[in-house]
Here is the input.
Amino acid sequence: MLLKSIFATALAIACLHAETGYDAWLRYRPIEGAALVRVRATLPAVVVTLNDADAEVSARIELIRGLRGLVGRTLRAEERIPRESAIVLGTLDEVGRAAPQWRLHAQLGENGYWLKTVVERGARYTVVTASNPRGVLYGAFALLRKIALGVPVDALDERAAPYAPIRWVNQWDNLDGSIERGYGGRSIFWEDGHTRTDLTRVADYGRLLASIGINGCSINNVNANPRLLAPEMIPEIARIAAALRPWGVRVVLSVDFATPKTIGGLDTYDPLDASVAAWWKQKADELYRAIPDFAGFVLKADSEGRAGPSTYHRTHADAANVVARALAPHSGLLLYRGFVYNHHMDWRNLKNDRARAAYANFKELDGQFDDNVIIQIKNGPIDFQVREPASPLFGALEKTNQAVELQITQEYMGQARHTVFLVPMWKETLDFDMHAGPTARPAPTPVKALVAGKVFHRPAGGFVGVANVGLDDDWAGNHLSMANLYGFGRLAWDPDLSARRLAEEWTRLTFGDDPKVVETVVGLQLSSWRTYENYTGPLGLQTLTDITGDHYGVAVEASERNGWGQWHNADEKGAGMDRTVATGTGFIGQYHSAVARMYESPATCPDDLLLFLHHVPYTYKLHSGKTVIQYIYDSHYEGADAVAGYVDAWKPLKERVDDRRYGEVLAQLEYQAGQAQVWRDAVTLWFLRASGIPDARGRVGRYPGRFEAESMALEGYAVRDVVPWEAASGGKAVVCAAAECAATLRFDGAPGWYTLRVQYFDLPTGVSRFRVLVASQVVDEWAVADHLPARKIDGSSSVRRVIPGIALRPGDEIRIEGVPDGGDPAALDYVEIHPDTR
Ligand code: GCW
Here is the structure.
């Protein structure tokens, strides 16, 4: 009965959310053609579960649901192996007891699975077995994935085990329901200070996570609210744990280091104080009483204003160990973040360098951390920028567990308003050889092997991804961004999977098998990181965004002359941070010598990281022979052109992708194309002005067909300077302070068909309106109601409206009318008039 109702609910949800993106890569749409015939020919009618462990029950529910969708057949659920063909779900022990004659013995490793076809007396058994129930669940998902991808499953013998024990996601959710750096809506866990009443979304998230092998999820912001550990919150956390448990996803909490004092009633949080140790211990005991499979804590200490051991002049090891010792009796883990740096650094001192911080803070403590402490290290030494080298700390810890922290949510990567597939970037870090092994036995020591504990034989370690999904139907705020969550989980399971394979798998599972769709989406995804880098910060400059603001719009100098340390040092002569040992900050010296040698000399330093590691004049020649300044110009034009190409590539998929997702992706890509142009113009002009060196191809600063709003005939509109100046064309916008305003220009080009591009600003306050009239006839009108990560009139709020197919005659008046609303002043930047080419 219970089984039935779970199944019915699952089905109902699947239908309700059809093609909103909610099902992500678990859509289970019918397979067709030869693949369907093949599967149906051998598909048994029965699925057997040998145990009622949570994960095995989930495996059965998922198989029934999946096969019903994929093959259109509903398997019968049974508890004993029948004489007819069946799918058999059970651990090795369970299978060994139920069918000893099959002799299925293996060392599968924790959470590893074995898919094995056994033929007996004419019946074919598809055995999904593992060392534990969670492994059975992973095996069931693997089997379904194969079927969905058209891989034959009638003669299976495949063993797989995860590369590392820690495969966690972090959610930066606040108890009030907001999510720090979340772009897919509000929290699925919290609302108004409490756990949500309806945790359906949490269970569905657990299912998505399980399908890619994730086994832990932190459910609150690393900027942690201490109230979470108050006794009354523990039953609420237990409810979340219960929703995730069927999917083998264990709950993790982010904790605040001062909690023993702030809510614990102690007058100290000194890690060496016995009462503090006792407090953490009783708190851990209390948590484990309510949640026996609780996974552990994440701790951000002494970072960006968070409390930490420095208050008492103690070390990070003191802090980590006092918490870890409370968890140890329960086999809990403490993920201690390596993201510790001084954000009040003096920028005038050219020897100061934030990139040195992680290594400087943790290297000397190597060997002092308990065995259940894992240092959680961001992939790069700064902070999830568009291009960074691997953090030198990965190569420096030999007696300490480590995990790599990757950011799935796209904080500096376009905040889900830009499509950026991050797997290629992650793979560069994971595959990067740190040359950390003993020199006597030289063997590659890539980051992935170091964090998995394979190089120095550490007991724990792995992969953490900051996911930040939310309540939006499509979880991430952009359909194409979900490839990052998928890719993260699959890489954490097997970092040797290629980016292309992951992009293909994800695309086929998400959009189906139409070859044109697959080719288009895979091509777009695989090129998207380089494209984004090209228009936001090439050559290791980092994302040239508003560092002290929303981390979204363009602001080339926002990183400079402040203590945050994301400096690029671009001035009139050159750009880049000198991080050499010889003349710079010495950061490069934190790498092992083989890496340091390569980075220290500009002759061997990869171009992509040149300005991250060296300060060079604009006329410096890259390996390609191109000057730095010309590369900056060219890459920005290439990047913007590439996104325009994405729009063109997507459009022909109209009949091949369901309407809703087709339209939403198109809108996202069109918006991104406009933003890429804003970035292109801003960055290239900034560097033109700084360097005084013209673009060899004559593009920068010359915009044929563009008419600045400030030079049009204005009624009611007032001209305003935009800050930073590069974020608006001509450094100015016009804003409407009246009830209604207009900006008019007279067209004096040749008669013909044209496309108008109106560049305007969309502020989150209010819904202003625009109307475009040509020769007194309304040709377009729209409400300014997008949800952008924007706060003011600058690059972050700059949007373009493309109006194709307009007939223009010399003397025609082009008039743009704006109606402001609730603080949104219907601001305009410019209009471009381009002959229609098609
Ligand atoms: O990049 C910064 C983010 C903060 C974040 C911090 C961190 C949760 O801007 O929002 O805080 O990193 O990783 O701790």
Q: What stands out?
A: The longest strand covers residues 798-808. The pocket of 4-O-methyl-beta-D-glucopyranuronic acid is lined by residues 172, 180-181, 221-223, 300, 339, 383-384 (CB under 6 Å).
